[in-house]
Amino acid sequence: MKTFVDWSQNDISNETGRIATGLYFSTLLTPKYSSNIDIEFQYIERQYPGFDPERFINFFSSIEISNSGKYSAALNYEFSSDPQIADKPSTTQIEKSKHYPGLLISYRPSNKINLGLFAGSRRGGPACNSGICYEVLDFEGIELRLSTKFN
Fold first, then answer.
1. Cα–Cα distances in Å, from 57 out to 35, 39, 92?
2. Which of 128, 120, 129 is nearest to 74 (CA)?
3. What whole-number distance in Å separates Cα of residue 66 and Cα of residue 29?
4. Domain ranges of the chain
5. 53 φ, ψ to 5°?
6. Computed over its alpha carbons, how large is the radius of gyration of the chain?
7. What's the pLDDT at 78?
8. Cβ-contact 85, 115 below 8 angstroms
9. Is 0.85 topped by the overall pTM?
10. DSSP character string of 68-99
11. What is the pLDDT along the chain (151 residues), one digit of tens a residue?
12. CA atoms lying within 13 Å on the CB side of residue 41
């Protein structure tokens, strides 16, 4: 089990306060099957000079079942009430939110090949790998991804 709590601010994006917390729990169900649960929550306040502050939340959850690293299936759910994303007029934070449900099924026939099938919607944003960051666009639909490693 892992948990975290973080407070930060970001002057570049005018975020005067960001509180983030999360919980990750992994357990063996049987000698071959394991499960993972991941829950994360953010409360953000964005302040532009001369305007009232924007207050919004982001939420992410995932539950995954896997078989010895060979097969896995995960249900993901995310929502954001960020006014820059969820532009629906409404009276409550949840109704204004943009929702991202998804299902990911993967198969790893060897340690060099991974085949993944994703169906649903996925939130875009920055993604970083080995110190190189890039922007990922929102996605909605079905995706089949084949990843290979060469040595």
1. 27, 14, 12
2. 120
3. 10
4. 2-148
5. -65, 145
6. 18
7. 94
8. no
9. no
10. TTTEEEEEEEEEE--TTT-----SSHHHH-EE
11. 999 999 998 888 888 889 999 999 999 988 899 999 999 999 999 888 888 888 899 999 999 999 988 999 999 999 998 888 766 555 555 566 889 999 999 999 998 999 999 999 998 888 888 889 889 888 999 999 999 988 7
12. 5
d(CA 10, CA 32): 43
Place of tokens 């969820």: 86
Residue 10, number of CB atoms within 10 A of its CB: 12
CB neighbours (10 Å) of residue 49? 5
What are 105's two structure tokens? 């099924």
- In whole angstroms, what is the distance from residue 77 CA to residue 61 CA? 5
| Cα dihedral 80, 143, 102, 150 in deg (nearest 10) | -90
The amino acid that residue 58 corresponds to is N
